Amino acid sequence: MPADSVPVRPFGAFILCLDRAHTGATPLASESLMPRTLEGQITMEKTPSYFVTREAPRRIHRMSPDTKLIVVVRDPVTRAISDYAQTLSKTPGLPSFRALAFRRGLGPVDTAWSAVRIGLYAQHLARWLRYFPLSRFLFVSGERLVSDPAGEVGRVQDFLGLKRVVTDKHFYFNATKGFPCLKKAQGGSRPRCLGKSKGRPHPRVPEAVVQRLRDFYRPFNHRFYQMTGQDFGWD
Ligand SMILES: Nc1ncnc2c1ncn2[C@@H]1O[C@H](COP(=O)(O)OS(=O)(=O)O)[C@@H](OP(=O)(O)O)[C@H]1O
Q1: What residues does the Sulfotransferase domain cover (predicted)?
Q2: Which residues contact 156 (CB under 8 A, 6 or more apart)?
Q3: Closest by CA position to 78, among listed 231, 178, 203
Q4: Nearest to 37 by CA among 67, 69, 71
């Protein structure tokens, strides 16, 4: 059968991972940029910044309104510090976290700083809900992905209508890394952890700064819990 006549399904899933979204990606303009999806396949796309990019919901909906959306979220305060740690690793001499997070010393929280703005999950989700119903989303807890990877991956498999192939027996806790790792890499026989840029130490941020950010995010977090029907336990 020529490739053109193979039945093509709409894209099965888009992964929007929000652990450490970066800004600047252009959302896919059309299906022509994606590979064809054959019967029994799921096409996945992981671009963290889509969740926070203004035009992404409209454009992805126009491409395929049946898209499933998976969003990985973690405590926005930890997320901001993680984001800062990532930038710091590439930009020595970066001002302190505190200097970037607040205007005028310990003045108002600077929501123009992307590390802070990305954590306003309720605001970003509101834009998506204008195009996609809540049932199209799976919200994965970044914290449980570390404490119970098999449980969270199990939810992902269910959401995608897949058999639960990945289970507890695929993971072990690597004490050196401080994170779960795979007992065997795909197609290999050796254990495999994520790379050095995942799970690196965070810089120390003064408790007063953390506390102020916690207070700032609390109402947004609660709104997000209401919108998703899930309590992520961040405060
Ligand atoms: N198993 C395992 N191993 C290592 N790291 C893990 C794991 N599970 C989740 N995490 C968390 O993933 C965070 C980085 O993932 P990101 O998706 O944000 O990375 S990136 O945006 O693609 O750079 C990374 O954030 P940091 O801890 O701030 O580095 C981790 O906390």
Answers
A1: 63-218
A2: 70, 138, 140
A3: 203
A4: 67
* Closest ligand 1 atom to Cα of 200: 29
Domain 3-228: assigned CATH number: 3.40.50.300
SS3 at position 60? helix
Q: Is the CB of 19 under 6 A from ligand 1?
A: yes
Confidence class for position 23, pLDDT limits 50, 70, 90? very low
| Single pTM value for the model | 0.89
Query: Could you tell me the residue ranges of all domains in the chain?
Result: 3-228
Q: At what angle do helices 207-228 and 76-90 cross, to 10 degrees?
A: 120
Give residues with Cβ within 8 angstroms of 4, minimum separation 6.
none
Which amino acid residue places its CA nearest to atom 21 of ligand 1?
A: 20
| CA–CA gap between residue 68 and residue 136 (Å, rounded) | 5
Instruction: Write out the two tokens for 114.
Output: 């992307």
Instruction: Give the separation between CA 147 and CA 142, rounded to whole angstroms.
Output: 9
CA gap 47, 58 in Å, rounded: 16
ipTM confidence score: 0.95
Verify whether ligand 1 is closer than 6 Å to residue 37 (CB atom). no
Q: Is the CB of 18 under 6 A from ligand 1?
A: no
Q: Is the pLDDT of residue 32 over 90?
A: no
Ligand 1 neighbourhood includes 148 CB (under 6 angstroms): no
Q: List phi, psi (to 5°) of 136.
A: -80, -10
Query: Ligand 1 pocket: which of 114, 182, 198 to mutate (most atoms <8 Å of CB)?
Result: 198
